[in-house]
Every structure is written in C-alpha cells, then in structure tokens.
Give the backbone structure.
Amino acid sequence: MDYFLELFFSGLTRGSIYALIALGYTMVYGIIELINFAHGEVYMIGAFVGLTVAGVLTSFGFPATSIMVMASMAAVVYAAAYGYTLEKIAYRPLRSAPRLSPLISAIGMSIFLQNYVMLSQTSDFLSFPKLTPEFDFLEKYSSTIGSSDFLIITVAAFVMIVLSLFIKFTRMGKAMRATAQNRKMAMLVGVNVDQVISATFVIGSSLAAVGGVLIASHIGQINFFIGFIAGIKAFTAAVLGGIGSIPGAVLGGLILGWTESFCTGYVSSDYEDVFAFALLVIILIFRPSGLLGKAPVQKV
Amino acid sequence: MKRSLLALSCVLMLTVGLVVFGGEKKAEASAKTILLGVAGAHSGDLASYGLPSLEAAKLVVKAVNDAGGINGAQVVISSQDDQCKPEFATNAAFKLVSDEVTVVLGHICSGATKAALPIYKESNLVCMSPSATNPPLTQSGDYPNFFRTIASDDAQAALATDFAIDTLGLKKIAVIHDKGDYGKGFADFAKLYIEKSGKAEVVLFEGVTPGAVDYSAVVQKIKASGADSVIFGGYHPEASKIVSQIRKKKITIPFISDDGVKAQKFINVAGEASEGVYATGPRDITGNPMYKVALDQYKATHDGEPGAFFFEAYSATQALLKALERADSTDYEKIVYALRNQEVDTPVGKIKFDSKGDAIGVGFSMYQVKDGAYQEVK
C-alpha cells in the first residue's frame, strides 16, 4: 500500500506539471485552433529566467522562499512577454493563411528559440538551486511525499482553480469563451478579438513559466532542450483530455502522469513511453476528440 | 554476401601475387626501409579522432629515424584514410597490404577496424588500434593479429562490479541505464559480471528515458527492491538527476557509475548529492615519464593540446616499432612474440600484450567524489 501511495504521489507531481503546461496548449487551440509548438520553449525560457534571477538574488543573500517567489514572478513576466511577442510576429500575420502555415511557423519558432538559448546561454546542463523550503512531513509520510512535490501539487491546483474562476466570472474570461465559440460573431458583438488572443497567449505562457521554475527547482538542473520533451508530453496530455477543453487538459495531464508512474513502478521504466502513448492511441480510437473534448460540429 | 565474396577473392588474388612476385622485392625493401601503415579517419566528420594518431605516429617515427632507425632501417609512413567508414576501411586495408607495409597502426573506429581485420589476418599483418574499444575485437579470439593500447568497454564494468562486490561488500545491486549504446552496454556487462560472481545479485535492471521530467518512480522502485547499491550506466545529466532524487528520499546507498559520469560537470550539477558517488575513469597517466616526453615533442612543433587518443597512438607506435626492433625481422610470428612477451615503456605505462591482444596495465581506476572533486580510490 505504501508503494502504491508513493507511486500515486509521484504520478500526481508529474501530472500537475504536465497539466500546467498543457493548459497553454489547450487554451490557444480553443481560441484560434492552432497548436503552438513553441509552448514548450516558453516553459524552458521560464526556467532559465528563474535561474538567472535566483543566481542574482542568492548573491545578495535573500532567503530561499522569497527567491522562489521573485524568480517565479520574473519568469512569469518574461515568459508572458515571449508569448505575446511570439503571437504577434509568428502567428498574427498568418491568421488568415491556410491552417498549415501557422503550424509550420510554430515549429520554426520552437527550433529558433531552442537554438537561440543554446547559443546565447550554453548547451551544457546547469545546476538549478533548491528553492523549495525544506520541511518534513510526519515521519511516516516523509518518504512518500517530499516538500517540493507538495509545493508543485498545491501551486498547480491553486493556479488551475484561479484560472477556471477567471474564465468563468471575469469580462476577459467571457470574451475568451465567446471568441472560442465563434470568432467572427464575437467580433461583430464588439469583442476585441486581437486583445483576447494576446491575453490567451500571455496567460498560457505564464502558467508554463511557473511550471518551468517549479520543476527546475524540483529536479535541480536545466538545459536548453528541456522544453522539447516536456512540451511533447504536455501536448499529449492536452490531446488525451480533449484539446480545447480546460478541465480536459488537467485530467489528461494527471492521467498521463499516473500512467507513467504506475507503469514504471509495476512494469518497467523501459516501457514508460510505450504505455503513455499506447494509452493515447487507445483513447483516441474510442473518443477521437479526447476524454472531455466536444466532437466538432460540421458547419455547412 | 556478394561483397564479402568479392573481398575474399581480392584477398586471394593479392596473396597469390605476393607469393609469386613479392618474395624477392620484399626482402630487398626491408633491408633499407620499414613501411608503417597508418589507417584511420583523416578526413570527414570524425577526423578529429584520427588525425592526432597520424600526428603521434609521425613524431615517434621521426624520433626513431633520428636515432638511427630500426636496426639500420629507416621507417616510412604510409597513411590511408578510412573516414571511420567500414567500406573505406576495407579499401584502405587492401591498399596497405598491396603496398607491403610491415605493420599497421589503426584503425580508429571499432566498426572500421572490424571490417579491415580479416584482410590483415589473411596477409599476416599485425594491426594495433589506439582507440577501438569494442570488446569482441579482442575477446572473440577471431583476430590473433589485433592489438590495442586502450582498455575495452567491458573493462569498466568489470572494475565497477569488482569494486562493488569485493571492496564494498555489496550484495543486492540495482543496475540502471539510459537505454543508449554506451550506457546499456556498460549495464549489460555489469549485470553479467554480477551474476557470474555468485556473490551478489541484480535486484533491479531497468532503463530510464533520458530527458524525462522526473525520475521519482524509478527511485521508488529502487527503494522497494531493497537494493543496497546502484550501478548506473550512462552520462552525467541523468546520473545527477537520479542521484539527487535518491538522496532527497533519504536513501544513502552507494551510487557507482562509469566514465560518462566522471566529469566535474556532474559534481557542479548534482551539488551536495554527488558527495560520495563512485565513478570509474581512465587511469591517471600524467605521472608516467614517457607521457611528458611525448607531450614535449608535441608542444615543440604544435600549438595547443594534443587531440583524442594521441597518447594511446603514441604508445601503440612505440610498441610496434620496438617489437620490430626486437624481432629483428618482418616475420609475423616474431613480431607477435615480441609484443606479447617484452615490455615497452610508453606514455600509457609499461605495457605488453595479453594473449588476446589487450594491453596489460592499461585501464581504469575507481574515483570517488570527496569535497567537490573526484579523487582516485586507492
């Protein structure tokens, strides 16, 4: 039972990170039906900004907790700026182009950002300081769940709740939902669609940046390539849950995290990815639009 | 199949040619000069592995010729480029054989070496590689004409398991690898040696996915398996993640790894968690007297540091030429006898070769992280 619980929490930690990044994919897709493949790189840039800020603040002797908060905030600001700019230069000019063009542009941006960070920073792995306050749970649980796992899970849950409240009750949230439903109609009733799309990119990028700082502090190292694998996994999570659906992204992330964790625990980590992607294929066969996705309505 | 038949027929033609026409000429040639074949990647994307060997050979040959040559005969280099590609390696080998070289230094890559060896074997040519580490090249026993001055890949695994079982007295070992050629190869050999020893068991054998966001599930598994140590095959990014997560779970068992982890970078990234980690790495050769001689010779004519396998190639050339001198003939049997039975003082140490062709005395040492640096475990 202990073993099961340990795997459960390990999967939950992993799943929360996937969910945080998957939210960005799913929101952007929900609004402009674009898969933003550069999203994983925004996560990576968030982690790099976090590292820089943490390095500077550590040399001034700030306590770890305040460094964590400030590093996350700086990462959010930077990543939001990247998300905003990315949309403006790589996707907006192509908005009326065939759907394939912005997709190619997204892949291009992903490769560009990876190489840009590799050349301007370094291709080596860098050590990321442990910013999570160290505390122990009751002796019995201390090995089951660590303080950084706990932090990741609570932050992710908090962010997701805030996000769903935001979308449900604020003006911008309403505008987002309207744009997602029908962009042309939303424009006709006076929604500033450009603003809404920019806001979506900014919010999605901020969430990814929070995920980047959290996971970097959890595993203690980053390099320019971390965004690629995390991005692919988060994208899978978004598709699994039903791309375009916010609760779907969370559910998909958690299911993916648990699948990987339990497969490693009970079968073998050799087959971690095999099981994760086999699950994706099976779900897509029976529910082509994902677990919580709506089947697209044919417009005639 | 067709290709190997062609290769075989070419070899036969050449050897017949040698017997019929070559006898007289050869005897005459060897009285004045000795041809040293140097084969390896001298162009292409792997040239950085091959060119330092050519450089080393030139330096040794120059030193030998300046000192009066080998029993009065001057040494001349005949170099052949194989770009580390097996198909070019066979061409290079045919060319060297038809040039009637006395011995061959090379090839550089394991694949190219394997392709060329049957051709040298047919022609009774001694071939010595400074860099081909693939274990079967010597261990299969197929190539009695092959020697090398670098330890094979499995020597590391043997050292790591011996150390774990005999020195640390460990009984239950979890073997983890990164699924890559190098990491999995190391882990496979480690598993094999642990099982062979009969004194310890492998309680977990698993691959992890490089670049995954989190390894805590594997760490739980190590813990649940009741392992008293971990042997890891792979490179430092994965190793530092795994060892950090193990230490975070307050598991204090020894962590033993390979020369992919024996890098300062590992200590920088893993930080405190790296303290006490064991890793195998090439034996320190900087204390050998010949090391300094070779380095000085290089520095006298070149800028910067010598490249990959320079010292291994320097040692191999020395061993080959010394054996020729001691054999006092170009007879295959006599050269092999000299290589196996008489020690040579080289940059990698005082070496001679065992019956399979591996240099005795070349190899790996165990290192441990102490106070933020790797120190040799004596």
